Amino acid sequence: MNNNDKEIILEGKHIWKKFGTIQALKDVSFKLNRKEVLGLVGDNGAGKSTLVKIITGIYPPDKGEIYFEGKKVRFSSPLEARRAGIETVYQDLALVDLMNIYRNFFLGREITKGKGPIKFLDIKKMREECMKAFSQLGIGIRSPDEIVSFLSGGEKQSISIGRSIYFGVKVLILDEPTMALSVKESRKVLELVEKIKQQGLSVIFITHNIYHVYSIADRFMILNRGIKLGEFYKKDVTPEDISEIIASGEIPEELKDKMIV
Amino acid sequence: MISGEFDLSVGSMYAFSAYVVGVLSNRGMPSLYALMLTLGFAVIIGVINGLFTTKFRIPSFITTLGMMLFLRGILYAVTGGSSVSYLGDSFIVITLGQKFQSDGILGYFRPSHFWYIGLLIIFSIILTRTAYGNHVFAVGGKEEAARAMGVNVRKIKLINFIICSVLAAFSGAIVLSRLLIISPVVGEGMELEAIAAAVIGGVSLRGGYGTIFGTFFGVILIAMVRNGLLLAGAPPYWYSAFVGIILLIATLLNVKVLKRE
Predict the structure, then answer these.
(1) Looking at B187, B214, B233, which one is the last position of a domain?
(2) Searching chain A, which residue's CA lies closest to the CA of residue B145?
(3) Per-residue pLDDT tens for A185-201?
(4) Are B224 and B178 contained in the same domain?
(5) What is the residue range of B2's domain?
(6) In A10, B110, B137, B193, which residue has its Cα 20 to 30 A from A245's Cα atom?
(7) Interface confidence: ipTM more than 0.95
(8) B94 and B55 in one domain?
């Protein structure tokens, strides 16, 4: 396989998870390479969100192991996962609407100056740094002083992503990032994902709309009712094929030999 | 209030601490020590308020209402409803409440004015120029987001309850050193006046928004209504009716302004 020349950054092995009587994940394994966008697709209730919640430590798995940069990990909270370099950007973003951009950007990790017990915010530096981070990623923000609630959904999404990258995230997980966005805004977010991949990051892009992720993903992993149906490289499948697999819950015969084993 | 909580016990704390400072000083304790001891006691009350609210997840409206009734009840029970005169040493009288001995303009002022302005400036700087201040806004604006970004929500709220309680106790000591007599009914209804002043000054009842200087103007406005009515010879019973009208108008303006933004 041409997989050998790539470096695996994140790997899950035989993950099981049960909620009450519902088997949410059944023996799911996955790999994520450096500088790769993995499209995690499947219908609602397929187990996509459960899988990422297990990766970032919101739930513990019943069985199975997760390896990050070659080491076995088990995060106990999303905060711990973030400190290690894995972060999920959710729909209901971790931004405080009533606060301005730079205060949100550095929330919990403020830049301060001064000696002794009382340290003051270095507001000038925070404003500059966050504008610098945005311009490097081509995120068009007018002013770091703008209040977040006046921004569009796509802009908020971009700010969250930009923040993760500034603070050194290695694996970015995007949970339905384009769901509530207009076509134009979706495209901007997709361009941003493309750009961060070029910078060497790995992205897991969760969606149930294959057309959103097809253009930027390198590989697809399809879940159905907690079971991994299969994985494909983009060159081997069309978006229609994947739509069909998601809808029918089965892999057609002619695609079976193209599956990644 | 900016961090999303109320403290209804400030009025009772104010009367209670005035009483404690008075009684301790009357028994011969140096008034500085009496003041320190009382402020220490206020810290404990703040911690109790804070722990009930953050740890047991009881709304602060209820916990501090309980504390308000508790402190006031103790005060009534101990005093039997009668006033206590201050007979202690002159330290707190000179440093807090008594007018400056001067023929010039300084003679119009009391040390408490400078304490007030000083604390106003200090806390305003803390709120707008430190990481802690940033966290206060975030916790009140969107608690989940603050927590997700690694802000210790409980700690921030606990600190705020302590600050609130200590400052209420400090004002109690000031009123004692000025009037030299303390009645157990003093400060009744003051907790609601405090909330009214903050709201008139632009603080959001839902948290996450507001300034200390805004509240300062709210306080000044309420005090002006009180004095104005008195000077105009109106019966003092009209006072709360006026404050009520101002509160309603201020809230209406706040909502309008926020919507237009």
Answers:
(1) B187
(2) A94
(3) 888 889 999 999 988 89
(4) no
(5) 1-187
(6) A10
(7) no
(8) yes
